[in-house]
Amino acid sequence: REQIDLAVIEGDGIGPEVIAEARKVLRAALPEGVTLNETEYPFGANHYLATGEILDDASLDQLAKHDAILLGAVGGDPADPKLAGGILERGLLLKLRFAFDHYINLRPSKLWPSAISPLANPGEIDFVVVREGTEGLYVGNGGVVRAGTEHEVANELSVNTARGVERTVRYAFELAMTRDRRLTLVHKKNVLVNAGVLWNRIVNEVAEEYPEVAVDYLHIDAATIFFVTNPSRFDVIVTDNIFGDIITDLAGAVTGGIGLAASGNLNPEGAFPSMFEPVHGSAPDIAGTGKADPTAAILSVALLLQHFGFDDAAKRVEAACEQDLRNRSGEARSTSEIGDAIAALLA
Ligand code: NAD
Ligand code: IPM
Ligand code: MN
């Protein structure tokens, strides 16, 4: 590949702040002879409030033509009633994940040497959460009956298809084969028996094709214990959409903070552009202060480079982030100071 045609959606809050740094680093990391075409799309809270538009079909068609999407964060002022009900999160972020069949939400967690974990004895932490990205509780299946009455019932139905689970599980096994060959299914099969049994059965079936991979199972509640007491026990974790959402914020926290946690929303077959974004959100509490750590967005650029097979460039970005973490001496640096430092380390 000699060119990357990238769509950039900065989004809201700290989104534009961290994406500016991610783009700096991406440009600095690009292998010789590869050109980068960047197209900015204005989607997010301000665009919606000004135009009434979240993400129309014509724009979706435009986005589909790019090789990949780099996204900051979605979610405007939480106090604004016009943005209530997750209208942007569902209408923009989840719409993209579903429209572009991002069935793998890949979220690596690594305690970089000299990153500071809040755990007393973190040990070595290096695992990847393979979060299913297009099903589960996120499909918007459900509704409210007898709204506003004392008999109101609010339902969200978790959708788990054999195909959707199997393709995710297969991806996780393939990934495990490139790593330490340990795979943990995280679910809640003791209570969510329908979906839990399906996930468990498919993991066991696919496991027969991967005898080298050691497979185990944890209920989601117990899994949260081990994230804190023994995170080294994890290599590849495969789980559904909601559990994957929750444990990846926890994983970010134990590996040095959510400001370091990267993610890729992948359509592995390449039928649609994959999308790369930090795990964190728009952080309205620190937006505009320069306190946002852009490392999560920058490490998401490393995932993007890896996705296109630019493994050396991806490793260089990771190494620069690692070196920058080593160089941190405790004094506060701004978002752009961190981005500049990482870009300089690459040069
Ligand atoms: P959040 O991730 O935005 O913030 C949680 C906490 O982490 C805050 O204290 C914030 O200051 C801190 N934080 C986040 N990113 C940081 C960074 N790079 N450096 C330093 N500190 C950082 O989660 P939230 O407050 O629950 O959500 C805020 C908004 O973002 C909501 O509208 C939510 O729906 C949206 N959201 C969007 C995405 C996304 O676009 N992928 C992800 C999560 C949340
Ligand atoms: C994330 C976010 C999203 C999710 C929200 C904003 C829809 O929390 O990317 O982790 O739940 O997937
Ligand atoms: Mn989340």
UniProtKB/TrEMBL annotation:
The entry's keywords: Amino-acid biosynthesis, Branched-chain amino acid biosynthesis, Cytoplasm, Leucine biosynthesis, Magnesium, Manganese, Metal-binding, NAD, Oxidoreductase
Domain of life: Bacteria
Binding site for Mg(2+): 221, 245, 249
GO BP term, pick one: L-leucine biosynthetic process
Pathway annotation: Amino-acid biosynthesis; L-leucine biosynthesis; L-leucine from 3-methyl-2-oxobutanoate: step 3/4
Residues holding NAD(+): 281-293
Subcellular location: Cytoplasm
Site, as annotated: Important for catalysis: 138, 188
Predominant subcellular localization, coarse grouping: cytoplasm
Pfam families for the chain: Iso_dh (PF00180)
Binding site for substrate: 97, 107, 131, 221
Entry annotated with the keyword Magnesium: yes
Leading EC class: oxidoreductase
EC number: 1.1.1.85
Molecular-function GO terms, alphabetical: 3-isopropylmalate dehydrogenase activity; magnesium ion binding; NAD binding
Record-annotated Isopropylmalate dehydrogenase-like domain positions: 5-342
Catalytic reaction annotation: (2R,3S)-3-isopropylmalate + NAD(+) = 4-methyl-2-oxopentanoate + CO2 + NADH
Gene Ontology CC annotation, any one: cytoplasm
Co-factor requirement: Mn(2+); Mg(2+)
Function: Catalyzes the oxidation of 3-carboxy-2-hydroxy-4-methylpentanoate (3-isopropylmalate) to 3-carboxy-4-methyl-2-oxopentanoate. The product decarboxylates to 4-methyl-2 oxopentanoate.
Complex formation: Homodimer.
Family the UniProt entry places it in: Belongs to the isocitrate and isopropylmalate dehydrogenases family. LeuB type 2 subfamily.
Protein name: 3-isopropylmalate dehydrogenase
Organism of derivation: Gulosibacter macacae
